[in-house]
Amino acid sequence: MEISFTEENYLKAIFSLSRLYGDAEVSTNQISEHLNNKAASVTDMLKRLAEKKFIDYKPYKGVRLTEKGRKTAVKVVRKHRLWEVFLVEKLKFKWDEVHDIAEQLEHINSDELIEKLDLFLGRPKHDPHGDPIPDANGKFYAQKSIALAEAKVKQVLVVTGVSDHSTQFLQYLSQSGIGLGDHLKVDEVNSYDHSLKVKVNKNHGLFLSHKVALNILVEVKS
Amino acid sequence: MEISFTEENYLKAIFSLSRLYGDAEVSTNQISEHLNNKAASVTDMLKRLAEKKFIDYKPYKGVRLTEKGRKTAVKVVRKHRLWEVFLVEKLKFKWDEVHDIAEQLEHINSDELIEKLDLFLGRPKHDPHGDPIPDANGKFYAQKSIALAEAKVKQVLVVTGVSDHSTQFLQYLSQSGIGLGDHLKVDEVNSYDHSLKVKVNKNHGLFLSHKVALNILVEVKS
DNA sequence: ATATTTTTTTAGACTAGCCTAAATTTAACC
DNA sequence: GGTTAAATTTAGGCTAGTCTAAAAAAATAT
Ligand SMILES: [Mn+2]
Ligand SMILES: [Mn+2]
Ligand SMILES: [Mn+2]
Ligand SMILES: [Mn+2]
Fold first, then answer.
1. How far is the CA of B47 from the C1' of C8 (A)?
2. A100 CA to middle of ligand 1, Å?
C-alpha cells in the first residue's frame, strides 16, 4: 500500500483539474500539460494508478479519482497547505516564497507528523494564499468568495485569497499593499477595459487591471 | 549540479562510516551493510559518485569523500539533526520517535529553509540524542564525552548523548528515568560482568548492564 | 609459494518514470 | 458519410537504482 512521490503528484494534479472543471473526467492532455510531461508518459502512469485502484480509467474516455484516490490526493493538499502555513507563520517566509518548498514537504509520509504539525499551528483553516485546508477526514470548508472583478462599486470587501499563485503575481500584490484580510472598496470601473480604481484599507486611488482583479478573491461584507 | 535522494544517503553513509573507523577508507561491504543493499549495487553507485567528484574511488581500494562530498554529507547531517530538534522541541515528539521522519526531511532541498529553521530553533548545538549539529560551514563542535562504562566510581557525570539510537534503547532509557542533561554517579561496579549500580539525579540503586553503559555518553564534571 | 576464502567488480536482468515516433481512436468539418 | 484533424495509446528505447550469478582480485592460510 505504498505510494510514490510521483504517484502523489499525479493524484494531486487529477484532483485539482477535476475541481477546476466542475468535477468532470480529466483528460490525458490536461494532466500532461499540468505536469509538464508528455501524453504518452501520462498514459503509462494512468494504467499504474488504475491498477492500484486510485482512479477509474477507461482508455480514450478520461479519468476520475476513486474514493481511495480522492482521499490520497486531499491528504497531499492538506500537507502542502499546512507546511505553507508553517513556513510563513513560524519561519517567516513571504507568501510568494513558500510554494516550491511545500511542493517537496507535501510528500513527507507520517500521519503522526501531520497531526502534530496541525496542532502546533493551531489547526489553521486557510493557507497563506487563502486556500482552505481540508481537515483530517478530507472535508473542505467552502468559502463563498468571488473574484474582485465581479464585485460591485462601493461594496465593502475583504481579501480572502488569490487564484494565481505565481511569485510574480503575489509579489505584485504585496508591493501594491494588498494581502489577505485587507479591506477593499471599488471606487470606479472603467467601462472600456474593465480596470478598477480601488481603496485599499484607508488609501484611495489604487489602479488594478481587469486581469489582476480576476485573480483576487474577496468576500462581500456589505 | 543536482543530487538525488539516493546519492545523499550514500554520501551520508560514507561520511558516518569514515568517522566511525577513524577517517579511514570505507569499503564497499561496509556501505552495503550499512544501507542494507547488495555490494554490486554499491559498486554501481560508487562509480556514479566518483564521476560526479563526490568521492575518490580506486577499484578494490575503498573510497574516500572529496571536499565536495564531505560538504554535501555534512549538510544532510545538519538538516537531519535540525529537523529532529524541531520534531522534539516544537512538535513534542519523543526522542525515540523522530529518527525515521528526519530521515525523510533531511532530503528537502532549500538553503533558505535550513537557515530559517536553524534561526527558528535558536541555533541549537545538539540534537535530541546529544549529537552535535554542524554549523552552516560544516564545522562540528566536538564534545569530549566518554561512555558511562569508562567512568570511575563516585565521579559526577552528566548525560550528554547516546551511541545507540534505536527506539528500543531510547525507550529503555526513558523508562529508567535517564535523559539528556541528567546527573549520574556510579556507586558500584560489578567486577564479574561490569554491570553498574548508579544514582540518577537523586535516586540511588538503578542497575545498568555493561552493554547499556557502553551506549550512554557522559561528561565528567568532577 | 600455493591453495583457499573473502571481497569486490562485471555481466545481465528487472522496475519506475520518462521520452519519441508511429498507430489507433475519437471528434470535427464539409 | 467520408475526410481531415486532434487526442490518445502503443511500441520501443533510455536512465537510475536495484538485484542475482559469475568472474576477478586481494587477503589469508597452509
Ligand atoms: Mn509534489
Ligand atoms: Mn497555497
Ligand atoms: Mn536519508
Ligand atoms: Mn539524532
1. 13
2. 9
Residue A102 falls inside a structural domain: no
> Residue B37's domain spans which residues?
5-65
Give a yes or no: residue A80 inside a domain: no
Residues 58-77 (B) near nucleic chain D, CB < 7 A: 60
DSSP letters of B66-80?
A: -HHHHHHHHHHHHHH
Q: Is B24 on the interface with A (CB under 8 A)?
A: no
Bridging pattern class, strands A183-189 and B63-65: unpaired
In a domain, A84, yes or no: no
- ∠ CA B95-B76-B88, nearest 5°, is 20
User: Which pLDDT belongs to residue B21?
Assistant: 75
pLDDT at A194: 96
The alpha-helical segments, DSSP class H, found in chain B are: 5-20, 28-35, 39-51, 67-85, 99-105, 111-120, 167-175, 210-214
Is any Cβ of chain B less than 8 angstroms from the Cβ of A109?
yes
Q: Answer yes or no: is A192 within a domain.
A: yes
The CATH code of the domain that includes B45 is 1.10.10.10
Residue that terminates a domain, selected from B15, B44, B65: B65
**Counted domains in chain A:** 2
pLDDT tens track for B168-216: 999 999 999 999 999 999 999 999 999 999 999 999 899 999 999 999 9
- Rounded alpha-carbon distances, angstroms, from residue A206 to A71, A177, A181, A200: 42, 10, 17, 7
Q: Which segments in chain A show pLDDT lower than 70?
A: none
